[in-house]
Specification:
Number of helices: 3
Bound molecules: zinc ion
Shape: flat
Helix content: 25-40%
Oligomer: single chain
Order of helices and strands: HEEHH
Distance between the termini: 48 Å
Structural class: mainly alpha
Length: 64
């Protein structure tokens, strides 16, 4: 079986945005994803990966 992405040797880490985040930080910016529950911007690596903020993740419902 052939892998179509074989020529793209990107390392797969726990947070795919970590390297991008490190770069934009040098410009005083942050990488963020939106919470899929409340729509807030998330900047912490854990929340970014989960697309949910800590509060919404705990409640599992997001009734603010
Ligand atoms: Zn949220």
């Amino acid at each position: 079986m052939r892998h179509l992405n074989d020529n793209q040797n990107e390392p797969v880490g726990p947070d795919p945005l970590a390297s991008l985040d490190a770069e934009v930080r040098r410009h005083g910016a942050r990488v963020a994803t939106k919470c899929r529950v409340c729509g807030r911007w998330l900047v912490s690596p854990k929340s970014r990966a989960a697309h949910e903020g800590p509060t919404c993740r705990t409640k599992d419902g997001g009734a603010a």
